[in-house]
Amino acid sequence: MSWKGNPTFIAVSILALIVSASALYMIYSHYAASPLSPATGGKALEFPSGIPALSSLGTAVRPETSQLYLEQEYSGRFILVTGSGVASAKADEATVTLGVQTESKTASEASRLNAELMTKIIEAIEKIGIPKDDIKTVSYSIYPVHSPKNYTQIIAYRTSNIIAVKVRRMDLVGRVIDTAVKSGANIVRGVSFGLSSSKQAELKSQAYISALKDAENKASLIAKTLNVKITGVRFVKEISYQPYQPYRAIAEYAMAAEGAKTPILEGKLTVTVTLQVMYSIE
Predict the structure, then answer these.
(1) Could you say which of 3.30.110.170, 3.40.50.450, 3.30.470.10, 3.90.1310.10 is the CATH number of the domain covering 76-91+195-282?
(2) What DSSP string runs through 112-151?
């Protein structure tokens, strides 16, 4: 039977066209409502403070929409500058990595001796004010010791147990090392200094404020030189953020001198922020 003039075929075709058109309209509506689309007037998003921020939120934006947005943002008269901010603070946390290694003719005996010493070390560290939750095992191993003359011959077994101790009081760092060594620790890998979460957030805020002031000073100098007036901020964009880099210090601990203390001096940690700021001018 020919499809020409068939009422059923014509009705189905019309229905398919309507469904396709509806789907296309829904897709267009989705993109048109994008935060970076012409439907928003091409305006940048704003921080709670009211300062607009040009940022990528992972929203699907068509190339032509994005291009239109950029053209609108970069239209008119403006000054575009970058500002850098740095903030530093002394470390308020440290991680001491230490442990104990034991050796015996049998693996079980080496393991038993190691467990006794490590238990003694941990108990001693807890007594000086370190919570048990801040003491973690980072490695544990048992391995054979071969004869230097005959590698196939096993002459002993070694057990190694390494722990990481988080110290939240800088005055306790040296005491942790000394206490552990006196209790039987024969491995001290070093101390890593860092910042607590609250201190990191505080430093980043300080760096942002410093970067904004730097950008403002640059823009003011340019505006004054060109004899123009700054009327507002169009957007602020983060170009880069460099968090602090933890640093390690190797402790020189005294195992022979009774009562000797290990000196540990924490240094400063720095974060850096670079921002791009656009100012409207007239």
Answers:
(1) 3.30.110.170
(2) HHHHHHHHHHHHHHHHTT--GGGEEEEEEEEEEEE-SS-T
